[in-house]
Structures are given as C-alpha cells and as structure tokens.
Amino acid sequence: MSSALRQDIGIAVVPGDAAGPVITLGEPLSFWGGVDPSSGRVIDVHHLSHGASLVGAIVLMPTSRGSCSGSGVLLELALSGKNPAALVFAGPEDTLTLGAIVASEMFGRRIPIIRLSEEAFAALSSATEATITLDGMVADGGRIRVALTTAAQEVLQLSAADRHMLDGNDGIAAQQAMRILVAMASQQGARALVDVTRAHVDGCIYAGPANLVFAEKMGELGARVRVPTTMNAISVDHANWRHQGVAPEFGEPAARLADAYVRMGCQASFTCAPYALPDPPGFGEAIGWSESNAVIFANSVLGARTAKHPDFLDFCIAVTGRAPLAGAFLDEGRRARRAVRVELPEGADSAAWPLIGYLVGLASSDRIPLIRGLARTQPTRDDLKALCAAFGTTSAAAMLHVEGITPEADSLGGNPEEEVVITREDLAAGWRKLSGGPPEVDLVAIGSPHASLDECRAVAERLDGRPLAAALSVIITAGREVVAGAQADGTLARLRASGVDIIPDLCWCSITRPVFPERAKVVLTNSGKYAHYGPGLSGCAVRLGTLDDCIEAALTGIVPARLPAWLS
Fold this sequence. Notes:
The protein is of the alpha/beta class. The chain has four domains: 148 residues, Phosphohistidine domain (Glucose Oxidase, domain 1, 3-Layer(bba) Sandwich); 171 residues, Aconitase, domain 3, CATH 3.30.499; 98 residues, no CATH class; 132 residues, Aconitase, domain 3, CATH 3.30.499. It has 19 helices and 22 strands. The strands form five sheets. It has an eight-stranded mixed β-barrel with strand order 1-5-4-3-2-6-7-8. Strands 20-19-18-21-22 form a five-stranded parallel beta sheet, with helices on both faces. Helix 18 links the parallel strand 21 and strand 22. Helix 3 packs antiparallel against helix 6 and helix 6 crosses helix 10. The radius of gyration is 23 Å and the shape is globular. The N and C termini lie far apart (50 Å). The N terminus is likely disordered.
C-alpha cells in the first residue's frame, strides 16, 4: 500500500472501537431476508457469501441493498451480541447505518460504521484482520493504515421548531426522535430537514425482540405521531392468529408490536402497498415512507418525494413530521445515473415486469436507472408494482425511471452516457436463475407485495371454481381494504370455493409456519421479490412462475421449470 494511501482519511459515521477478522462481501447485501437475525449468518441463497457468519467480523461491502428492514435486523443482532464488530462501506449507506445509530443512541450498543474511499476500501479488502479506534484503522499488523475523522455536523441547519424538539421542549420521545434524525441527516450531508405530509412505518414486522423493544420504549417515552401514518404488513393476521395455530410465544409479541404503534397514533392499515390505499400521495408531495417497494413506487410511479428511509427512522419522521432533506427529496437525488436498455421480446406479458425489475436492479445496484426499450408497452399499476418491488430487492436506489412511462423520465431521466443492455439471453438466464426447482409444487404464493383487487379477481376468474390439487395450498396475502373489496364483490367467495386462502395483515416476507403450511417444501410464486427472498426466509425451494404457471400448479400440483412462451 502506498504512502499516499496510508494518508487517506475515512469517515467514522458511527465512531467506536472494534477488532476482528475481515470479511469482504463482493456485492451488496440486504440484511432483511439476507442475514438470519438469530445467528448472524448470510441466508440469501443468491448471494456470493451465502453461508458466511458475520458475527464479530469487520464486514466490508460496497453498500447495502434491498429492504428497509435491514436496520431492524442489525439492531436485533446488536441486542443479542451476534452483530458484526463493525461495518465498512465504500460509499454512502443508510439502512444499516441507521440501525447502528439506534443501537448506540437508545441501547448503548456501539457498532462502528466506517465509510472509505474506493481506493482505501479496495486495499482493506485484501486484509485478514483489522482494528478500529476512534482515530484510525490498522489492518494486518500495520500493513494498512487509514486515519478516521467524524462526519461533519455543522452543515445541518435546524429550524427553531427543530431545536425546540431537540432541546426536549416537546417531550422526551420527540427529543429522542430528533436526535436520531439529526445524526442521520448529518451523515447524509443534508443541509436542512423538510416537512412531510404523511409517513409509513415499516418496522412493525416482528423479526425478533428488537423491533418490539424499540416501539415499546418509544411508547414509554410518550411518543405520538404528528402526521397521518400508515403501517406496513405485520407478522400475523391480527384478528385470527390464535385460530390459525400460531404459537403464542410468536403471535403475542407480534401482535403487541402492531398494537404499540397503533397506540402511538398509527393507522392499522397493515399493508406493504400503501400506495393502493385511498388518497395516495400526489406528484411532488414530500412524504416519509419506508418499505422498499413502497418507496420506489411512490417516487417512480406517483412522482411523490421520499428517501428510502430505514426502519426506525420512519417512525422518528412520523413523531417529528420532519425528514432529512437529502436523496430523492432533491432533484439532484432523483436524476438517472445509468441507462439500462431492455431488449424485450414481442408478446411479453405481465410476467416480464418482475424479471425486468430484478435484472435492472442488478445492472444498476448503486444508482438510479433510466430504463429504455419499454415505451411501447402498456403496463398496468400492478405491472409497475411488480417492477418496483423486484428492483428494490437487488438495488439500493430509491427509484427508477422508465422512458415513455413514468412521470419524471423526461425531466430527470436525462440522457446518461453510460448504458447497459439487457438482452433476450439475459432475460432467459435471469428467469432460469429464479425459477429452478422440482416440478412438484406444494404451495402457490400470491401477493408480494400485497395483491390488488384486480389480481385477486384474476386468480378467481382463472380457477373458475375448480378445486385445488390434493395436498396443495394457494395463499394470497392482501391488505384489509382489498380483502373487504373482494368480500363485497364476491371475489372472496369464488376464491374460497376453490380452496384458496386470502389472508390480511401479514405478507410473504413476514409469514411464518403454521400459516405457511408445514408440509410445503416447494413454492411457486409470480413475485420476483419473493422468489429472491423466499428461499432464505422459508428454507424452501421458491420458484418464479407466470400467473398461468401458478394456476396450472394450483390445479395439478405439477409445473416444470420452463421459460415463459415469449422467452422460449
């Protein structure tokens, strides 16, 4: 390592001391669905480091990706003592950083977060062990040295009302929320905070005690939301979990977590598709949303403005009505930085959209893309939902633009000089990657994100009252509003006549056994998001299929892995 590099200065975003072996992840990782919160082991079967333990290690990765709930997983690991010793990134990162901020601010558990230049990050990647102190990093017995400084806070300008909260004049909970907001805004380089009109809380999924500890502690401090605040899907069907055989040791804390947020003023919406609720955000509206698919849909399809807020920060925003003025709140943070051209075959149907989202995320994992080649398509809102959700599993970006389709593609899509092409062959390879597995199917999973009423009707129409194959389950997860609509128009009765279960409140990324059938070993889904996360979350083979595949599996129990007709 050169002497110039030895003088390179990194930023201690969350300062602290740590020592341990160096583990370098060659690609970003979502901690939610990618790391087991009970063991600290990588469970994302699609990740290069699948199976690795991160406990006690100095973990290097370019940035995180995927779910906003990664902050909750890191807090869970911190409270159980199974956390990485430190996290080192090659650039800006929000989700795990926020988890470390909350662990330090509220629970006294310090996990250093370090940000390095690409050159210093590359050098450290070759190390076997490292030690971090407040003023520097030393690796391999002094072979690599990097000085550290703290993130500057003087750029952040607070309003009088902000300072009023920060000084504790609006109560301890608002003060705590503002402290976390200020710490986050400072590391993002924000110059101010911005008012938001509404919030959406993602941290109500029970992945372990940490989320419940956070929520109940904020409740004890007197927290109340200041803006209308919806809630993400939770981990149980709130009214029916006892009848469904869910063990009390899981069901009770999961319900308590939901109830804690409702007591603090959140709406019991319990959906991961808040954009489908009545009165969705309007174009240009500043909102404080979490949940990756919801954030990407709000920014990309609705033209609302929100950063991809990590869990816990979303509630701090709801309590204060303020958010860091950074990222996708700003025009500069919404501009496309890479073009991705999709060579879409003629005849492509709705099954193309989750596949495109997944592959575009891989092709533009760290920046907002402008997707080209789709202008002649006529996607439905459900198609765009599938696109945004799958993109959010493989990219860290808060939004995307689709040329000729999304509202800001002309103004902020720009004309990026760098272009990546996704060919027909790439599409076929991507489908095979997500669709492989045994032909015998035990469970068909619909509704990740939550199914719309149109999607429920489509399943009912295609089944047309025919019974499901023996020993096979079909489960649709949907929001309460959709379930009520399906009941009102007869769709629910038609689905149940075939043997389909439609379950509110929880979603596929939070479902657990026995609601997830005990016997199920092979799952077929039309969701790119769940095809990615499902194997790690469920321990099952989870295959991507078209809706036609899902219906065929529902009726026969067998669907071989195959390409959609338009890719064959």
